[in-house]
Amino acid sequence: MTDADGPGTRAGVRDLLGLLAQGAPAEDLARPVADARAAGAPAGVLAELEDATRAALDVHRTLAQHRTREAELTALFDTAGDLAALRDLDAVLRAITHRAMQLLHTDVTYLSLNDEGAGDTFMRVTDGSVSAAFQQLRLGMGEGLGGLVAQTARPYATGDYRTDPRFRHTRPIDEAVGEEELHAILGVPLRLGSKVIGVLFAADRSPREFSAREVALLSSLADHAAIAIDGARLLEETRRALSELGVASRTIQENSDALRRAEEAHDRLTGLVLRGGDIAEVAAAIGTLLDGGTLVHDADGTELARSRTGSRPAPAEAVAASRAGGRAVPLDGTWVCAVLAGPEILGSVTLTGRPGLDDAGRRLFERAATVAALLLLLRRSVAETEDRIRGELLGDLLGPAADPAALAVRARRLGVDLARPQALFVLHSDAAPRPRLLAAAAHQARARRGLAGVHHDHAVLLAPSRAPGPDAVALAAALGRAVGGPVTVGAAGADGDPAVLPAAHAEALRCLSALRALGRAGDGGTLAGLGFLGVLLGEGPDLPSYVRTTLGPLLEYDERRGSELVHTLRVYFAAGMSQSRAKDLLHVHVNTVVQRLERIGRLLGPDWQSPDRSLELQLALRLHQVSGGDA
Asked: How does 447-478 read in b/e, with b if 16+ C-beta sit within 10 Å?
């Protein structure tokens, strides 16, 4: 710049500097040159002003770039602050996409997250999107622009995605991009260290090129976003862990309380057993502890005790299931638990009125069953000791002569009154081993206030009885049910005199042999009940008693009416059961014979002419005649 040209040039430069200071737009910077040209300034001045204008435009452009960069940095800092303040992952993701749209001034921004299990990246949140297909899009690694960014961890941009051959186009991706009407797309990786967790996108619905500055800006935002996403995710995991820890803490407390209650209940029940409580008291305690009704059955299904509920049979299938699984099982609104001693089943406990039993209650119920097992074992031990003592007493009663007074005292201690009419039963079963039969006999002896044991290799039962024959039949049926097979019972009476028990045993044993010889396994009876076979097998047979038992109704009728029914029956049998021959021998009309036989049938029963019954009658008639009772 020359001195001659100085004043004009300096004025123009001052104007340019003023415009720059005012932040005037770039087009205003051309005004000083235009004014000098209009004023006819020399060529040298114009050239100097044009150079100064170009310099001013460079300064203006630099200042604009600095202001833009400053605004972007401010926006990034604001974004970082905003993201740091957010705690919810969804809120963080929405804030990221919205701030990206503000910074890059694009039509659409969106963010995808990688799914390591599926091996792809899926659309997580969008801003400005209108297509449902686009919002639900999943991109395989290497597919489309986003899949390539997720795979390579490098940013990619395209001015028009639809026509860009650099990307692997797939039909779902192209259709979704087309439905959204996107052209220009920029994608940058969301990175945590060397790991890519997703992709941040900015896109326009018209073709355009993304500058390096925009790529760097979106990458910076992505870096902040990745940290915020990881922080939100860690915070969410921490909250979840704390929540789970709280649940676990409450569960531990509940389990601790349940365990304490179970221990207290177990101590209460065990103390009850140790103090000598019976099974009924334990059943009542279980019902009180669990607020329900209780039934206790033994291994055979016999009810031992119940509390706060009605009687019902033991559910065999549920007991079997509980025994197999070792746990209480539900059944139609009740709970059933097998009472076990190792693999051996001792019985079962049924809980009613508690269909919704929780785990703690179930464990308490199972503990109660264990206590019931302890009590049943104690009961069995006591019963076995008592059965042994009873068996020893029975052996002494059936053995060589002993002190009757001492035996009576021992019997009274066991609750047995030998002065009452008794019956001696001898038992046999081919279906059950002797120990099992003896156990069943001992159970019957306790129920009947009698004695049971083994004598001369047979199970023997002594019990009060006024009708040995019917009692033997009933006992055979009960023992058969208990052992699961036929039991034969021979019986003999002992009318309150312990001294006759050995003879009664011998008679019952002969009766048992007769029953087996007759093929009547599973039946019971006495020698007297066997008719003439009993007379033949008996020792010192009572023939008049047999005659009275067999012909009693006819004898009484003849004595009361003065008739001849006994004589008519003897003649009828002697005539070969022929009415016509009998009327000749009796010297009466045949109608009289018919009428007498009808009367005999009414007195003796409809089967009096059957082979077995007629044989019994003929033998009794012969004995009656021999004894002088009939001429």
From this structure: ebebbbbbbeebbbbbbbbeebbebbbebbbb
